[in-house]
Amino acid sequence: MTKGHRITVEPSDRHVRVVHGGQVLAESDRALVLRETGCPARYYIPPEDVRLDLLTPSETRTHCPFKGDASYWSRPGAADLVWAYPEPRADVAEIKDHLCFYDVEVG
């Protein structure tokens, strides 16, 4: 990591729910919260708690120097709504294959 940049990953003690277009896409009590310098807290949800049948793999791929290469999924009217790191960097290995959404409800 570069000087001054920090990432932490820990189990969330909060219930995480993702709703889009009136449909629940994910709901979990097992999410991980990733905190990264300069970014909002992000909740990474285990794939078993995500309605993958409502998502379509996207061609989009991005690279983060701190987390690795991300793959994306979309749904009608919401391109690249969710992403995951299939092979994350060792520093954040816990997020492997967990899915992260831009908008979540945390309770």
From TrEMBL:
Gene3D superfamilies: Domain of unknown function (DUF427). InterPro entries: DUF427, DUF427_sf. Residues 16-103 form the DUF427 domain. It comes from the Bacteria. It holds the Pfam family NTP_transf_9. This is DUF427 domain-containing protein. It comes from Streptomyces toyocaensis.
